[in-house]
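Deliverable D4.2, example record:
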Amino acid sequence: NEYKSYLRMERAVAALSQEPLSLRCQVLGDLLGTLPIRQLHLFLPQLLGNVFAFDNSPGWRLSTIHASFQPTDFNAIRSFLKPNGGPLFKALQCLEPDPSSHFLFPFTALPPTSMQTLCDRALPAPYRFFVNVDVENKELSMTAHQYYFMYFAYYLVRPPSGAQWPADLSDVLYTQLVDDYLKYFLPPGNCIPGSFISHPTGNKFMSTSVPLSQVFAEVLFEMWLNQRGNESTQISLSIDQVRIMRMLVKHTHRFIYTPHLVKDRATEEAINSISVSFQTNTVYFLSYHFTKWPLISSFRGLMETWLSYVQPWRYTAITPGALTENNITEWHPFIRDNLPAYCDLFDRCLRRMSHSLTCSGKNVTLLSRVLKVFSSPPLMRVIRDLEYGNPHSVTPVFTEALAAQELLDKLYAEIRHMEQQISKSENGMSNNNNNNTFSNLFNWLSEGLTTSPDQIDAQQKIVEMLRLSMGQIQSMFSISPSTIGVSLSPAAPNGPDYVYDALNRRRLTPQGRQKMIAGVLQKDIKDIVPECSPALMPICSYENPLLVRGLHKLSLILSEKISKQLQVVHKSQAPLYSMLKPLIVQVKSNSEEEGALLLNLRPVASYRFLLYTSLTLVTSYLSGLNPVLILVYVGLVLAAIACGSNILSTTS
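Output generated by the structure prediction step:
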């Protein structure tokens, strides 16, 4: 018998390299049911490492196998990993009752905040279900199902090297598995599966048990929605990762808020526990990534995730729809418990929109979608009432309307600018036919290419959308049209340059912002703290997005390595150091007297700087000038551009 078991184990290990994947699934499916518990315990880490590429192997390509292009492999792997009766889950069920079948998972695969907390010998709430936490070896001990869930969740946040998600995620294998697991473990309107794991304390088991559905949800919340960086680690998610996380948000809403026709005690307790963990992790997740908005390419997905989270009434399986006066009472507790998601994030969104290029079609569409959600009369009334009742706990987005007034001024200026550009383009089109080639070339070098009729039509549509958005904001916040654009006028009345909100945070008024840009406002300028890092200003159309993001990561690394030197340059009054100061920005919160210093390499990403530098290098090379002089000139141009960038960033 031992010899036969040994042969089966050898065959199972050999099957991990067998091709095609459909045949590998068939062989492993036949062997898993025949392995003894002891050998199954030894084989499971090898199997999961092979499936999810945790062992530096190519893995089973879960993120690239498509149902339309590889239907055989797609169906074979999906059947092998399915939660209801699949060969792998049958093996996990066999290992679960064995008290010695524990598996080790490294701290390094955990979210940075949780890893730091565990290393400090504290126990975050999601880890209370694990068997043991070994701080010395930095490992978690867990049961077979937990072990699989951790591998499955980790695959999304750290996919194999070189793996690229296709444009259409609907038929991708990993996306389909996520959908299968959510429907099985968190079934809307039905009881959860009757599978449990023992609830551990230290190295011993208690008599109570935890539903497997609750463990599955807690693992996804921890591994996905807890992806937040700390002081030493920055987290940036791709659009594909955010889209799958949005699936989790929408389905969890369905599970929690769809009336369960039959609800046992285990299902009710699981819903209550999942609801608390879900709300806490999602709000923190969105708050963290909203602060990184400008430099991430996936913000549209984050915006959609946020809008999905604050509208749970859209995802109830029985009566999905809009928020009305008839059902507002039902959703009042959710809005109250998640008030920061409605106030703080909405305020941050409005302020970021006022600092972005709203003339961009994508930004205008995002703004319209946000305003459509928050312009609901029942929702606005409830948020206003809750703001009055909690004046010091959230940002008063409706009661003070500072962000709305700022955005209106921005939209007003954008509309005026775009109307001037449209008029100029229309005149240019009529004049181009009469100009000679040299005149057209001169106009192109000085003013750019002439706008085509289609581009003019697109700009006119954007202007109309901006006007509609202005009307919505005026109606939502009861802002008088006579106050719009007043702060942008040279004859603006003498008002305060900054105000304090309900959280005692100093905010520049539109008039103060204009004064700071013009260099008029100098008194106490160092005490006016930006709400975000100046290096995280929204990416502009004259900047290369890839360079901006890459240089920001490089600046974080360099700033950490040369922090002492940056302090010396920042405090010194020497003429040479004064030339370098524009390349250093200070990032601090309102509670800090002195913030961290960050090397600002962002001006290098400007197309203008790249063009000037290229022309200078080419001209100097052809003229035979000294390369040292070239580098000095480039540094002077960089410092000049950075000086202007720092002035603008302070107003952000």
